[in-house]
């Protein structure tokens, strides 16, 4: 039996794929009307995509962060840089995670698992760091890139709510890695060493549910996405494409986005499989907080 709550929230969790489908994401937000959004693979502008191919012809300078707040009712937000690129003629773009909300963000903090760099990309060369044809090489580079784990403190009707998000390095089949286990230990320490408020932990863990990392988080916090089986878009993500399959494997389901909570009452969680806004599915969690 669900505990009665005096305040109901809707959370949208999404890896936005550098805002490739930015207008679709705006439409999704306005349709679902979430109170809180956690984003990964946030790109400040579209330089990130064009610079991967050493070609800035598609660069428009559009500020995705500002436009998102202008075109939705998520008027409060903070972008947390993981790393950045600088390309040729002083064009720059940072890449990271974001937390956005209808409610004021009164404080925020974060930690990195290593120093946050800016990568300088040649104007002439296709950069293997980002776009190697060999997925194994991309995965190795992914392990070397820094991760940021971010926290925003929201003020909701005079009650404080903490929201955490992050984006973790990928392994070839989204299986367990020692790096991931160590990151989860850091996360738990980071959360437990702060004052306890109603808490949401929502991230692209790049990790399936059966691994030690997710099991460890389940032992500490309430798992808010228990009935979801898949969080990747079947029409966009290469895991479901026979022609681009990973080691010849085509998955039926792959769940790598997870949401946890503390002092939270789960109402329901589900995915939107029809909006096609990214290579990940939007994960939506409705929950209550006793206020």
Automatic annotation (TrEMBL):
<dbReference type="InterPro" id="IPR005135">
    <property type="entry name" value="Endo/exonuclease/phosphatase"/>
</dbReference>
<dbReference type="Pfam" id="PF03372">
    <property type="entry name" value="Exo_endo_phos"/>
</dbReference>
<dbReference type="InterPro" id="IPR051916">
    <property type="entry name" value="GPI-anchor_lipid_remodeler"/>
</dbReference>
<dbReference type="GO" id="GO:0016020">
    <property type="term" value="C:membrane"/>
</dbReference>
<dbReference type="GO" id="GO:0006506">
    <property type="term" value="P:GPI anchor biosynthetic process"/>
</dbReference>
<dbReference type="GO" id="GO:0003824">
    <property type="term" value="F:catalytic activity"/>
</dbReference>
<feature type="domain" description="Endonuclease/exonuclease/phosphatase">
    <location>
        <begin position="12"/>
        <end position="280"/>
    </location>
</feature>
<dbReference type="InterPro" id="IPR036691">
    <property type="entry name" value="Endo/exonu/phosph_ase_sf"/>
</dbReference>
<protein>
    <recommendedName>
        <fullName>Endonuclease/exonuclease/phosphatase domain-containing protein</fullName>
    </recommendedName>
</protein>
């Amino acid at each position: 039996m669900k505990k009665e709550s005096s305040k109901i929230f809707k959370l949208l969790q999404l890896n936005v794929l550098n805002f490739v489908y930015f207008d679709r994401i705006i439409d999704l937000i306005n349709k679902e009307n979430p109170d809180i959004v956690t984003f990964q693979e946030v790109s400040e502008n579209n330089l990130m995509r064009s610079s991967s191919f050493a070609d800035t012809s598609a660069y428009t300078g559009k500020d995705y962060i500002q436009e998102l707040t202008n075109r939705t009712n998520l008027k409060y937000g903070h972008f947390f840089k993981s790393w950045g690129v600088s390309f040729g003629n002083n064009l720059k773009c940072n890449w990271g995670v974001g937390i956005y909300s209808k409610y004021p963000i009164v404080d925020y903090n974060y930690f990195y698992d290593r120093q946050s760099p800016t990568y300088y990309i040649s104007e002439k060369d296709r950069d293997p760091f980002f776009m190697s044809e060999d997925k194994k090489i991309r995965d190795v580079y992914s392990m070397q890139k820094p991760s940021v784990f971010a926290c925003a403190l929201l003020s909701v009707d005079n009650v404080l709510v903490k929201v955490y998000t992050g984006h973790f390095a990928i392994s070839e089949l989204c299986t367990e890695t020692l790096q991931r286990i160590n990151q989860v230990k850091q996360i738990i320490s980071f959360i437990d060493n702060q004052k306890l408020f109603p808490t949401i932990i929502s991230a692209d863990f790049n990790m399936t549910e059966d691994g030690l990392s997710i099991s460890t988080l389940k032992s500490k916090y309430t798992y808010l996405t228990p009935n979801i089986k898949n969080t990747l878009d079947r029409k966009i993500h290469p895991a479901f494409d026979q022609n681009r399959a990973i080691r010849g494997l085509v998955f039926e389901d792959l769940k790598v986005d997870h949401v946890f909570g503390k002092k939270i009452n789960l109402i329901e969680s589900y995915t939107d499989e029809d909006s096609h806004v990214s290579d990940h599915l939007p994960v939506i969690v409705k929950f209550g907080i006793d206020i």
